[in-house]
Design goal:
Largest sheet: 6 strands, mixed
Helix content: under 10%
Structural class: mainly beta
Number of strands: 34
Strand order of the largest sheet: 1-27-34-33-29-30
Oligomer: single chain
Length: about 525
């Protein structure tokens, strides 16, 4: 049994060098007690821009982290062992030596580096994360960061907007923007008429009646906000035209007495500017069309419709294996890897995910561009086409990512002959021909709606055990045959775990790994 990892073990020999930059192992290490190691990674954090996001990840902005381990049990608690470690972003994911025991881990992310003093705190773990360290072992955990000190009045960021109304042909209308704290009371902070020039000490708004563009900046404390736009129209012919579009799409007309409401979520981080730009046109107030291109003949395109800023249900029942000649000869088995905002196939066709040589797009030579993953929670801000992505079994390690916005909460462990090993997102797991392996979600209590998927088929029945689909059992000598579609021995296969996170509005979570079943001798 071999485990191919992306992170940890090659760095163990260089721990001493690494911790010159961070901290040294404690001098009070108990006699005859060996260390265990913690590897902390950061899942994709919530973006700093008003949602829907523009794809900018805060992980590119954070320069350092402070990890605080507080002992809560085991030997570490007996000896009163606690540890605070400052790490620059280049060392994120390196193993941290700790006395065995259980800990609560809290993390703060900073804009500045360790050498600069870490004064600009931006994001943090909202609650302590429990982690257990075993002597001589390595424990991995993925943490989620949120806005540091929501509602803080000491430091904040700015919300800037640039909104163009020139595409609205109604003869008479008003547009109001409200900014409210996203709490139980939804406390209204600002009520701004975007079509009038006005200002006070809290915000600055300008409107150019020639260009019909409203721009402004608002200083806000760090935290979460709702931003609501209300368009009120007195032009009955304009309303009738747009209402007709909703009728033709067989959808309920969202206008209410001439009002159209469009809401977005706003995340304000200390020291950062969140920006929102949008061009309103007449089409903004009609059905927004999502076109699904399957990129697999002869399947025709399908469409769905949403209100501006809303989401759509993804096509259902599309679970077949691609075994025709669409992607080349001979026919092969492909995994459906979701809907993406760009067609990332190489110029002139070919297999998604393969290295390409595109003379028209040299930057795509090694990494085809698929844009962003489109899910059933993605806000639709205009007509959009999304593309089915197919990954061939045996070529699954090429530029493949299924983790959606919201982070990777799922933790997975592999057990063979009673020996358990942590598995990382994207690992290749090799199972020898005589092995019986169990893959177990170790934080199943944090998840709901757990699904194991192979070739877009749910793995069910005797191969899934434990509460809430906790464990997948693989017996290589007999093979696993979910729904009569067996994993092929001597071949690589993509296995995806999907779940929802009840603590974060049922946000979609996913985890994937490559399963390599060694053939029988």
């Amino acid at each position: 049994m071999k485990i191919y990892k992306k992170l940890v073990f090659a760095l163990l020999a260089s721990l001493t060098v690494m911790f010159i930059l961070t901290s040294c192992p404690p001098e009070s290490k108990p006699a005859n007690t060996g260390y265990g190691y913690a590897v902390v990674s950061v899942g994709r954090v919530n973006l700093r821009t008003i949602l829907p996001p523009d794809g900018t990840d805060l992980l590119d902005i954070f320069n350092s982290y402070r990890f605080t381990f507080t002992a809560t049990g085991g030997y570490a608690q007996q000896v009163g062992y606690n540890e605070t470690i400052n790490i620059n972003k280049d060392n994120l994911g390196s193993p941290i030596p700790l006395v065995p025991g259980t800990y609560n881990l809290q993390v703060i992310a900073f804009m500045d580096s360790v050498s600069d003093g870490q004064n600009q705190s931006v994001a943090e773990t909202p609650d302590p994360v429990s982690i257990t360290i075993n002597e001589g072992g390595t424990t991995t955990t993925t943490i989620r960061l949120e806005v540091y000190s929501p509602g803080s009045t000491t430091n904040g960021g700015t919300f800037s907007w640039k909104i163009d109304f020139s595409g609205i042909t109604a003869s008479d209308y008003t547009v109001k923007m409200e900014i409210a704290l996203d709490d139980a009371m939804s406390t209204l902070l600002q009520d701004i008429d975007l079509l009038e020039t006005d200002s006070d000490t809290d915000w600055d708004n300008t409107f150019d009646n020639t260009d019909e563009v409203s721009t402004g900046t608002s200083n806000l404390a760090a935290g979460y906000y709702n931003v609501t736009f209300t368009l009120e129209v007195d032009d009955l012919s304009w309303i009738s035209k747009n209402s007709g579009a909703w009728v033709n799409a067989n959808m309920e007309d969202p206008f209410d007495n001439g009002k159209f409401i469009f809401s977005q979520a706003l995340w304000i981080y200390q020291y950062l500017d969140s920006e929102f730009e949008f061009d309103f046109t007449d089409e903004s107030f009609g059905p927004q069309t999502v076109t699904f291109k399957y990129l697999e003949d002869p399947t025709p395109d399908t469409q769905a419709h949403a209100v501006l800023g809303g989401s759509v249900s993804l096509p259902s029942g599309y679970t077949k294996d691609v075994t025709n000649d669409t992607f080349g000869t001979p026919p092969a088995r492909y995994y459906f890897a979701g809907w993406w905002t760009k067609d990332g196939r190489p110029y002139g066709g070919g297999l998604p995910g393969n290295p390409i040589d595109d003379p028209y797009n040299p930057d795509l030579e090694d990494h085809p561009e698929w844009g962003n993953l489109f899910t059933n929670t993605t806000g639709v801000l205009g007509n959009i086409t999304v593309y089915a992505r197919w990954v061939k079994d045996g070529e699954s390690a090429h530029n493949f990512e299924v983790a959606p916005l919201g982070g990777n909460l799922i933790k997975l462990a592999l057990s063979i002959d009673g020996v358990s090993t942590a598995i990382y997102n994207g690992d290749t797991i090799t199972i020898d021909s005589t092995d019986e392996a169990e893959l177990t979600i170790t934080n199943i209590d944090k998840l709901e709606n757990v699904e194991w998927i192979y070739n877009n088929e749910l793995i069910t029945g005797q191969y899934i055990t434990g509460s809430d689909n906790e464990t997948l059992v693989i017996i290589n000598s007999g093979g696993v045959q979910p729904d009569n579609k067996p994993f092929i021995k001597g071949f690589e296969h993509i296995v995806v775990i999907k779940a929802t996170d009840p603590d974060y509005d049922d946000a979609l979570q996913s985890f994937w790994f490559i399963l390599d079943l060694k053939d029988l001798p």
